[in-house]
Every structure is written in structure tokens, then in C-alpha cells.
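thread: overnight batch results

M.L. [08:02]
morning all. the overnight job finished for the chain we discussed friday. pasting input first so we're all looking at the same thing
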Amino acid sequence: MEVIKQNISKIKSPLGGEKVYKDECAYSFDNPESENGLYICMNTFLGLGKKHVERHYRKTGNQVFLNIKRRRIEVPKDDQPPEKKPTKLAIGVEGGFQVDDKSFRFEEETSIVVLPDWTIIPLTNTDLPDMVQLSAASILTAVDAWKMEEAAAMACTWEGEKLRVSKHADNLLQLDNGKKIPPKGWKCEQCDLTSNLWLNLTDGSILCGRKFFDGSGGNNHAVEAYQQTKYPLAVKLGTITAAGGDVYSYEEDDMVEDPHLAKHLAHFGINISALEKTDKTMVELEIDLNQKIGEWDVIQESGNKLQPVYGAGLTGMRNLGNSCYMNSVMQVVFTIPDFQKRYYDKLEEIFGNAGGHIPDDLNVQM
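M.L. [08:03]
and the structure it wrote out:
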């Protein structure tokens, strides 16, 4: 307690917008679920695994840390809620594909740890100064900085994707050809398909979409028509509701937003507010395809009895839910001898010489 009182001027609360790193060590993959938990400096709000705490203490003189330990406790299957269908292209996160059928609850233990003697004081100790209690409470309730950065980067997942407005939307050519589209009963104008149909917003043609790699989908009639006419925008019939629909720009080669979709559909006699969703969106189709061909089973090597391996040269990065490809690339890069010499062999030198804000130090993070 005496050491804490001597350091009270260095103990702060993250109330001014400071970033708090309470979910993962700045130097390693240690986190609150690791054996010793995570130690958060109560001055810099930097999270540290146990083997990195003393280095931080020697460099900064900061002696007081909040230790968070989190333990997973498996929930019996009978007590688990029914499994939900995936809604985003991510693994092991809410809304994504789940890597196993186990569910967990968490128990958390918090304490104040004082260096250099590693003195442990339970956070429930009423003798702790108010400033320490306030700092700990503020750290525990703060949104983790890594999570904030991850959320900003998750625009590539389906659920969070913001479509760009098509450059053709404002001045789209619509032909006065007298064509009126019924609210249902559609069929491709060049074959017998009645699903995966696209309405071209320029000439009102209804044609089937692309053929998927597994043979399903359409017969490519819509894209073939674009190659001849160059009419750029089409909306997928069956996905249209008052909130919008799946719009594709052939020229921009991407799904886009058409802010004037209601007006463009009204040109062909379609009342957007009266339509209901009857076909799968492109997001739903992609999820279905992943499940249909067993890709998820392939990824998980279902049916095989696997021997878990870990350790030097075998363990990858902690998966953020959509980082598996980056993970595999980095594991390959780290097999290059020159790369190993630059980063792995000089690990302590890099850590020891690091200055400034550790999470932004490229060499430390690499």
C-alpha cells in the first residue's frame, strides 16, 4: 500500500479519450485468458503479458498494474441456445461461422499488482485509494483499443460493408419502350429460369444471372446482354423491398447502391413499397454455396482425427474472425531465414530499444 501511495500521482484514469489495451499484450499474444492473465499499466494503459511487465517497469518506472484473469467454463450443450445461421464472412465471431459446437461462460478475477515485488492486492480491498479504484473501474469499462481498430477494419465483412453509390445512378438512361414489369411471375427472356433473375434498369429486360462454379445459378444471359448493350445497372428481382435491393453495376464490376432505385423501378411500373423479398440476396447465396459444397467441412477437416500441434514455427496469429489469409501469409514470410534474423533473432534488442507508442512501433508489432 505504501508503494501505491508513493505512486498515486502516476496513476491515471482513461477519461480523456486515451486508448486502453486490455485485451492483448502489446508485445505478444498474451491476453486475460493466458495463465497469468494480462497486466495493464495504470499510467499508460498498455496491456502486457507477465514476461514483459518488468521491462516496462524498468523503462518507465511505473510500478502499479491492474491484473485481469479470465477463465473459460464450458456450458453443457443442453443449456446452449439454438445455433444461428451465419450472416457474415468471418470465423469464430458473433454472426460468423463457428469453429466448434462448444459454448463458454467466463469468470473474471481482478487485482492490483505492485512491482518490483509482485505484491498482489485484491481489487475488493477497501484500503485501496479512491484514485486506484477509479482508474481500475475506468479501465475495466473502457472499450479495448485493439477492438476499436478491428471494428474500423471490419468493413470487408458482409454485415458491415458500406456499398458505394454507382456513378451511373444520378443520370441513368431509361428507355421509353413502354415496358411494364409485373410484381411477380418473372422468367428469363432467353431461357426457362425463374430464379436468379436480374432486371436491367435501362431497357427493362429480365435475364438470368451468372453460372456459379458448381454449375448452379443462371446461364449468363444478363451479363451477355450487357456486353452487347452496355446498359450498366441491374437489380436482382426477388430481393427488392421498400428498403432497397441488390443492385449490380457491370461497368464498375461490383455491387453498388442506387439511391434512386424507387424512381428507376417506377419507370417500369414497379411500386417498390409493395414488393416483398422472395429470393436470396447475393450474401445469402455465397453463404449457402460455402455450406453446400462442404467448404466449411473441408476447412475444419471434419471427420478426421487431428493431432493438435503448437510451439515454435507452428503457431499462427490469433484469429480475428476474418484474418486467416493474412495469418497464412505471415507464417510463410516468417519461414524466410533473412526475415527470421531481422525480427526473431533480434527480438530482445527490438523490444528493449523500442520507444514511443509501442502499438504503433512497426518493428515491435512485426
